[in-house]
Queue: 2 jobs
Job 1
Amino acid sequence: MRSLKSLKGLRIWGFPGVESFPDGDLPPNLTSLLVGRCHNLETPAFEWGLHTLTSLSQLTVWGMYPRMVSFSDDGCLLPISLTSLTISGMESRASLALQNLISLQVLNISYCPNLRSLGLLPATLERLESNDYPMLKERGLKDKGEYWTNIAHIPCIELDGEHIHQLKYNTWRLKCTNFVG
């Protein structure tokens, strides 16, 4: 796939025949990548070569087996060009390490019941969305959750469809309610 130099977006969804992404084999100029429901994919995320995709701004990883996707402990480096990251349908995760994603603006975590920690989040984050993520729902409640100090800087926070935090300024409210990610 590396020869597809002009390809900007790639969606790999529900292909049982996909078993691996050899390091560096993804098209080099991708700006958007979605990988989901490829249940025979056996290559761990740290071998995908994501850090080499310097133009990648949107990454979605959906419904993968736990051993396939890790963005912390196994040394997986995500490109600092990411502005939007969606992680959904992960059955088992220990933690995420995202503080080095200095361009990240939108983080969406859905259906990750066992994710234990988000770690430090980048100051650039403008929107945090979460559905069915118990840890954040329990510990991120405004002014009383133990995790609130880690997410209070984010202008727009939505947990299970409920806005729990928006900055008071109308410009941020408009951006928060009309954001298209």
Job 2
Amino acid sequence: MPVLCNVPTDVGLNLANWSDQRDPSVKLGPEGYYMPTTANYLEQFFSGDSAPHVIADWPDDIKYFCEELITGPGTMIDIPGITFEVARVDAWPNNIPGAIQHNAYWDAFALKTFFD
């Protein structure tokens, strides 16, 4: 799942929680498109943000996130634009109490801590 953090706010931490809300019983279609409800959530989440910026610590995280923006062949959520940044931050080990390795939520905390 994506490692997301919109620094300096905690938007990324909120968005990291989104990955835990996906219904694992719903299978992907043959084209690999994700649940429309995920795309709907992201569209609602970004509404009112004229310049969303997503930061991840690995390129695949951006790829997986972009797949969530797609609602079907040739269609995506309605956002004016979005920018991405890959910040090579070692999310593990860290000094964050209770941190869990290879966990999107805790990786987002590590990214936020790095930028604070």
